[in-house]
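re: ur msg from earlier - yeah i can do the nickel (II) ion complex, just paste it... oh wait u already did. ok heres what im feeding in:
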Amino acid sequence: MKEIFKNIPEIKYEGRDTKNPLAFRYYDADRVIMGKKMSEHLPFAMAWWHNLCAAGTDMFGRDTADKSFDVEKGTMEHAKAKVDAGFEFMKKLGIKYFCFHDVDIVPEAEDINETNRRLDEITDYILEKMQGTDIKCLWGTANMFSNPRFMCGAGSTSSADAYCFAAAQVKKALELTVKLGGKGYVFWGGREGYETLLNTDVKFEQENIANLMRMAVEYGRSIGFTGDFYIEPKPKEPMKHQYDFDAATAIGFLRQYGLDKDFKMNIEANHATLAGHTFQHELRISAINGMLGSIDANQGDYLLGWDTDEFPYDVYESTMCMYEVLKAGGLTGGFNFDAKNRRPSNTYEDMFHAYILGMDTFALGLIKAAELIEKGELDAFVEKKYSSFNSEIGQKIRSGKSTLCELAAHAEKLGVCPPVQSGRQEYLESVVNRALFG
Ligand code: XLS
Ligand code: NI
Ligand code: NI
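and the outut:
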């Protein structure tokens, strides 16, 4: 097999003082943190689309990076070259998972029958490449937002025919996910939303989306898919209003339509901030609802209002993320780098620097989050903060059996409310800073 990423060695852990830019400083796969290996805490995944397909085209200019891998683009040979590149890439970085959309792995044909034939062929090839490695599929999905037939939505479309094409793609993508041993299946509702209510029946569209998800669950379970379905919330872009705005909205939707037993959240950092939330908030909301499934590990730019999908470098954010993940007892899914190189970072070497950055950022976040948990200052503070609920009246309230009359009687007996304890935010922020910087 011809080497594609020449001059790039296997990336090894060399510690924080290494001078080698192509090495991990913090990601040490076998290092044990809180009783588990780093590699188990952090099942990293390569995103097929950003890493092997996206080549820098934006609204203002064409490709800057060469992702042809020396083969003519748009052909099945090229699709195979991408598989070769992907596996070499994952092996060199020690990444054990990948995520894909149907149309990332083959060039889409005019006729869906031909696309499906190509998908069978390429997944045979991927399966072959998987043999003898421990690389697996983290999750699969169908791209139901690029093709013009989805201009009015996929599950939310106004066209019954287009709806059937969405169904056909979900069916096929589920089959492929099962074939590749995928742990999850994602619905990201790119076009599932609207621009104006002047032409939109929101209730109708939401019912249709729920119905599509119900059929996906039924079919998935019937072909042996035992993993989790995920909704990946995002508030906007491409649509102005998207139905899966954030975790709370998506969870409410799933419960309304009885889908909450089969679905969890795939939380993307950049989508959280677009929704006006922190990444940590979205993780916490998912976790307390028992729906923290998987993570799209990237970061946005606070100065820009769109999905920039940058590789994560912010250790404060990754620490707070890992704090939530550790507290929740881990993910059922993994950490998919739904992130792309900046347009001028256009060499093969840059692809490796990007993943090294992302993996080290999360490894360091894991180390620091474990430190925070082991020191226990934050936990102790939060426990103390609510300690008044350990009192007789407090326990009564917590039991859910109190009445307004007895609580009012308590207040009236006191007459004046005793001082409420300080929230000590600045002190707690300094506790986090100390864990990060000593
Ligand atoms: C786009 C989404 C997308 C999903 C998969 O913003 O993040 O990449 O992860 O369809
Ligand atoms: Ni995104
Ligand atoms: Ni994503």
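cool cool. DSSP finds 16 helices and 14 strands in the chain. ping me if u need the other ligands too
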